[in-house]
């Protein structure tokens, strides 16, 4: 019989990682809603550390699956080929990991949407502020648009 203990340990580590990552993602969402750019930036730095940990855990998971002879299997396929007593342990772990990943993705998507809206607002404000002021050509030379011609004006 195959020993699933290493694989189970990796799945538990993945769950713990997402349990630690979700509050950081929620903090990023809250900071984005409140336009607290420095907090968003800080959260993104924390996320980068989690991403590195996640990559390491994914490699460990792949190694464990290869040792079990289940390289490339989905979780569903693993459950189909695992012994009954292992299925009883893995099923709730896979369910919990799936729930954690869905929650993370939901918060991450909301944060991304808020950040995109904030960037659009900033871009619009900058564009409005820059109307009638100097612009630059493709070569980097200053062009003064206060003479009545706008850089988008075209002769027909």
Write the layout of secondary structure elements.
Layout: H1 5-33, H2 37-67, H3 75-81, H4 84-130, E1 135-136, E2 142-143
Antiparallel strand pairs: 1-2
Helix pairs in contact: 1-2, 1-4
Please provide a written account of the structure.
- This protein has 156 residues and is mostly helical.
- 73% of the residues lie in helices and 3% in strands.
- The protein contains four helices and two strands; from the N terminus they run ααααββ.
- The protein is elongated, with a radius of gyration of 25 Å.
- The relative contact order is 0.12.
Output the keywords.
mainly alpha; 156 residues; 2 strands; 4 helices
Strand order of the main beta sheet, please? 1-2
Cα end-to-end separation: 80 Å
Number of helices: 4
Q: Which spans have pLDDT < 50 for at least 5 consecutive residues? A: none
Number of strands: 2
- Going by helix content, strand content and strand pairing, the class is mainly alpha
SSE string: HHHHEE
- Average pLDDT works out at 88
The percent range for helix content is over 70%
Biggest beta sheet attributes: 2 strands, antiparallel
Shape: elongated
- Rg over alpha carbons: 25 Å
| Portion in beta strands | under 5%
